[in-house]
Amino acid sequence: MVCIPDGCHELVVYDSFGDGMCCAYGAGNFTLRDAQNNLLVNNTNFTTASTTHAFCVTAAVRVSAKVFLEGPYLTGPTMTDALRSGNWIPNAEPYAALGFTHTGGGGGETINAGVLNTTGVNAIVDWVFMEIRSTSAGYPVVATHSALVQRDGDVVGMDGTSPVSFTLAAGSYHVAVRHRNHLGIMTANPVALTGSTTTVNFTLAATATYGTSARKDVSGVQVMWSGNCTGDPQLLYTGLGNDRAPILTRIGGSVPTAIVTGYHREDVNMDGTVSYVGKANDRDPILVNIGGTIPTNNRLQQLP
Ligand SMILES: [Ca+2]
Ligand SMILES: [Ca+2]
Ligand SMILES: [Ca+2]
Fold it and tell me: Which tens digit of pLDDT belongs to each residue from 151-177?
């Protein structure tokens, strides 16, 4: 194993006898691979005194995050995958269109063929938005990726199984996970990320998160707060920019018992149906999550 800096390099193979790696004494070859076993240079043989191959390397770090979204988590121990089974999950990442800012290689992700056919605990629940942030003041975002979350909480790449890879040098970073209608969360402490996979399990109370009460405790399991229909950094039940009114608007604006199916931000519990009243409606969780009694209260997202 040799460590080389990011950028483009040349591999030069010299031959002191000047007769190459073939052919008088049999066939020879060489390959150069990166730490993840990707092929950089392949030479089946050469016949002259030396050979030169150009190749480029880019450092990558790998993160295996685990999160539960309150909406589909219900009482656990895994999340429901009604959006997947209802064929509502879009193939292309939804976050850029919702105003999330991609940087450092994120954006434009599309799900590999067949991934949404997986059932069981590794079935896909929805898209999530991952951020890798610097430890510098203000925790600036250095790289993002849209990713997928499985029923058991594993956050994976577009193949539905692998950890999420970011084009970054190994180092200490904060890891954040955000969602289109849940409050985002970030590690309180820097996490060492390398080309090997680092696990960040946000479902454990032991994994400290930035801020105060960043996650909701559901029988000892930490989940992301549901109910953010507006995409601003808070849950609000009444007043300007609240998260309740968009639900009523989505179902038509006048008949509270109406329902709308599909992939909508106002579907707080992510069952594929937007509903305002009745059993398992999408309105009540917002009131519960701001405290349950005083409708003018709010809950702020704990992200810098
Ligand atoms: Ca899994
Ligand atoms: Ca909101
Ligand atoms: Ca719903």
Answer: 999 999 999 999 999 999 999 999 999
What's the CA-to-centroid distance between 292 and ligand 2, angstroms? 16
Cα–Cα distance, 153 to 183 (Å, whole number): 16
Q: In which band, very low, low, confident or very high, does the pLDDT at 35 lie, cut at 50, 70 and 90? A: low
153: CA distance to ligand 1 center in Å? Answer: 7
By the 10 Å C-beta count (0-12 exposed, 13-18 middle, 19+ buried), 93 is classed as buried
Taking the CA of 153 as reference, the closest ligand is 1
Tokens of 112: 């590999």
Residue at 279: amino acid letter: K
Predicted TM-score (pTM) above 0.70: yes
Ligand nearest to the CA of 239: 2
Q: Residue 48: is it exposed, middle or buried by C-beta count within 10 angstroms (0-12/13-18/19+)? A: exposed
Burial 214-238 (b: 16+ CB within 10 A, else e): bbbeeeebbbbbbbbbbeeebbbbb
Please check whether residue 166 is in contact with residue 109, taking contact to mean a CB–CB distance below 8 angstroms.
no
- Residue 108: which residues within 8 A CB-CB, separation 6 or more? 92, 93, 96, 102
Query: Residue 126 and residue 89: Cα distance in Å, rounded?
Result: 7
